[in-house]
UniProtKB/TrEMBL annotation, chains A, B:
Annotated coiled-coil segments of the chain: none
GO cellular component labels: cytosol
One GO molecular-function entry: DNA-binding transcription factor activity
Name of the protein in its database record: Rrf2 family transcriptional regulator
Segments traversing the membrane: none
Amino acid sequence: MFSKACEYGIKASIYIALNSYDGNRVSLKEIAKEIDSPEAFTAKILQALVRDKIINSVKGAYGGFEIPKEAIASIKLSQIVNSIDGDSIYHGCGLGLNVCDENHPCPVHDQFKTIRNELKIMLESTNLEQMALDIKSGASFLKI
Amino acid sequence: MFSKACEYGIKASIYIALNSYDGNRVSLKEIAKEIDSPEAFTAKILQALVRDKIINSVKGAYGGFEIPKEAIASIKLSQIVNSIDGDSIYHGCGLGLNVCDENHPCPVHDQFKTIRNELKIMLESTNLEQMALDIKSGASFLKI
DNA sequence: ATTATTTCGGATAAATTTATCCTATTTAGA
DNA sequence: TCTAAATAGGATAAATTTATCCGAAATAAT
């Protein structure tokens, strides 16, 4: 469904949020270890999230990644996905047609529209806070 | 959502079904032209569908691909997708965890379960006949 | 039989995604 | 000021997906 990059991006964001609640800035090294992702690749992904101002980075000793506490609840899963995978998940045709709309639909246009809309609603109604709290309470997990 | 291979496979199957209703066997060349796909790559995909007995092939002059008329209505979109992309779309974790189930869910497990179930229902309730008839009536299109 | 046509299947290449490496830059603290 | 720790970012490599090429095998028609 999502690219590997996007999966890492989501998990990393959750881990950063989790620690930001405690006022802890976390390093790339720690993040990669805790979400079980390749370090250098994760770095690229975090760079993208920083560029899109979804997370914050601090260079140098004692630096790392963080998210302002107040912002965590307002960051939607959709923003993270969009930052990394773009918005093709919303607009692209299920069968890869260059043009696919109501006037010129592909054979699965209507069916896909429904599914994609559900996906959109899901991504837009899930935020970082919910996900971070589930990890904190042990209701969900970031690895294995 | 689907791989390129899967997109081509679905479109090719529809085109073959469409022609099989008229008793016409169609060649790889014609298929690739009509669904606007790379010929040699499409050949590989059709081979997979033949192996899984979703479509039928006849070698040699006047050969080509076909689907027995009686079978068309019973071929589900899910079978085509499964033949080419496998069943990861059903089982895989949304965040790529190796283990992700009710006892050890990833942070988006429940949300994804819902979407994936909708997708599953959609793929299993859409069949080749419906799609072929929509193309025939001009209600949907295979290219552009 | 020969030929033309067509799928099959192995080898290979191109493109994209995923992953690694290395150097530059920034920053806190000694 | 120097050093250690950390992110930034460019270059490159590995893996996967997508795409092409070509000879082999099958088959219908001549």
